[in-house]
Amino acid sequence: MDVAWQYAYQSITLARTTPPGPRVRLGRAVGPHLRDNPDRDPRPQHECIAMDIFQQLIRIEPGGRGPREITRQVAGVVSASGMGTGLCHCFCRHTSASLTITENADPTVLQDLEGHMARSVPDGDPQYAHAMEGPDDMSAHIRSVLTGAGLSVPFSDGRLALGTWQGIFLWEHRTGRHEREVVITCLGR
Fold this sequence. Notes:
- About 25% of the residues lie in helices and about 30% in strands.
- The chain contains 4 helices and 9 strands, in the order H-E-E-E-H-E-E-H-H-E-E-E-E.
- The strands form 2 sheets. The protein has a 6-stranded antiparallel sheet with strand order 1-2-9-4-6-7, covered by helices on one side. The chain has a 3-stranded antiparallel sheet with strand order 3-8-5, with helices on both faces.
- The relative contact order is 0.24.
């Protein structure tokens, strides 16, 4: 491994923590082209900042198919992190549920989204080869791929920087009731 890139690799060491944890040094190295210039210092030039990492798993109780708002739970994790400014990343640990940000003021938005998804990706399509767990199995996987397993939201002054009408939703794509897990990771200061 080139010395310059080895330094960059060693500088970016992330520790997995649950409580507010160790400071993490992030580096920026100037690449391996330095060795081609004998007049330059061969050591990488870098700037470092310290960041905290806080991670927590939240469990969402079964609720059946459709979007379910989890903004308060996510905001609670940001608050528990003790950080003022940073980025909150949410990751859904399932292949038949997803995360999205949409309007949280008018419930008909959620009804329309679920209706559109039902028309676009119907259950029990005979062209689906994968149906091990029933007619909603493959359609749930497709819906999850279309909407995504993760999202990131900045936070300032310890509060999520969502717009006035925005909320974070776990979108259950199965017709049955399943407990879901979402990993919330906060990076910041």
